[in-house]
Amino acid sequence: MATIHEMDSLHLASAEFGRVDVFLTTDTKLIRACRNTVTRMRVMNPVSYLAEVIEDDGY
């Protein structure tokens, strides 16, 4: 099980407080660790997010 480092948790908490829908990061360990964490936001890789947005918009 991956752990969330102190500075990462600060960034995540700030994003949660700001009520973001998606938190983008290239840190694959953080993305993996967040899969087992209950949050109001999704934690994703920017490329994956862009692909999803393009697919949803029908481009």
Number of helices: 3
* Shape assignment: globular
Distance between the termini: 37 Å
Q: Report the radius of gyration as a whole number of Å.
A: 12 Å
Query: Strand pairing plus helix content: what structural class?
Result: mainly alpha
Protein name: PIN domain-containing protein
Organism: Selenomonas flueggei ATCC 43531
Key features of this structure:
59 residues, mainly alpha, 3 helices, 2 strands
Describe, in plain words, how this protein is organized in 3D:
The chain is mainly α and 59 residues long. The protein has one domain. Helix content is 53%, strand content 10%. The chain is built from three helices and two strands. It has helices at residues 6-17, 28-34, 46-57, and strands at 22-24, 42-44. It has a two-stranded parallel ribbon. Strand 1 (22-24), helix 2 and strand 2 (42-44) form a beta-alpha-beta unit. It is globular. The N and C termini lie far apart (37 Å). The mean pLDDT is 92.
Could you outline the blueprint of secondary structure elements for this entry?
Layout: H1 6-17, E1 22-24, H2 28-34, E2 42-44, H3 46-57
Parallel strand pairs: 1-2
Characterize this entry briefly.
This protein is mainly α and 59 residues long.
